[in-house]
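DATA SHEET
Item: assembly model
Revision: 1
Owner: S.N.
Input lines:
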Amino acid sequence: MRSAPLLFTLILLATSLSGCLGGEPDEDEPCDEQQYWHQVSEASPYPGLGCEGGPIRTLAVTFFVYRDNDNASYISNETSLLAGLELINSVFNPHGINFALGEIINVNRAFPDVEDEQEGETGTVGNSSGGAGGDFGDGVPVSALGTEFEQHYNFSNVNIILITDGWGAYSMYPWHDRTYYATFVRASTFETSYIPSHELGHFTGLYHTHQYHEYTDSDSDLERASSWTDDWVVPNEQCYLTGDFVCGTPYDCYQWCEEDIGCDASDLYQGEKPGQEESEYPDCTLEQHSPSLENLMSRYGDRSVLTDDQGARARYFVQYMLDTERMGNQLVAVGDA
Ligand SMILES: [Zn+2]
């Protein structure tokens, strides 16, 4: 009987090691770092698909707080920023990503007024996302932020600039080369709106759910996918190759359904965009068009949900930003939450 305890120990050891060695996620246990953050394959093109959680990465945020348009007072403060971070983390924590207050840069100058708009620059950025659930409004250009922004921009952190009402929120995809990867969100609704989470979705590489809506019959958008990194695996599943490059979000043509698929879906966004003209097209059937109306990366009203594969894609690009130096930028994780 003396060998029994040894055998028992070996069985225990084998069980505890299988999570690391097997490669496949264990259904009952959280994944390890390799599975959750690194491992990709043709069947699972983003890390941690199928994982029940895994180790959390924390990114520090540098907040830029300006004075209001009249230079009277600062437009945000630590209490408000912490409350907003909590809302953001309620969206991203379930997918292993945590945002923490790194530093607040109070910039002692009036934020540019929206009447001083400098059109042209933001068009190249692409992710305008205004208030009231829409993605509209002029984005303030980085060049209007003054030398204080350049001096204090943190190349290891997530940089968020609080903006005054009237300007539209926007952020920047991780794969386009630029010096300043900045995220712009309104100070007045930072605590209560999911738009900051939406913009950080773009920052972590998420497209709108209606991305490439016009290509309904394309076999693959792989060439577009290849623009973000050369060594992205070619997934087996078609839905990882088209649209927003995730499978968990159904096809969404938002306000372009008439042109795209010949039916009217304006009832879905009537709430945010009232006063739609009567359409000459028939209403879309559920089979033609049933987008997620709650998805964070949609433009519908009540958006707060990230699917598991959107979360996995966000992890992929967070890891990319941790691993890759991009014009001086390289995120540094600050430890587990
Ligand atoms: Zn957007």
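QC remark: The first strand starts at residue 57 and ends at 67.
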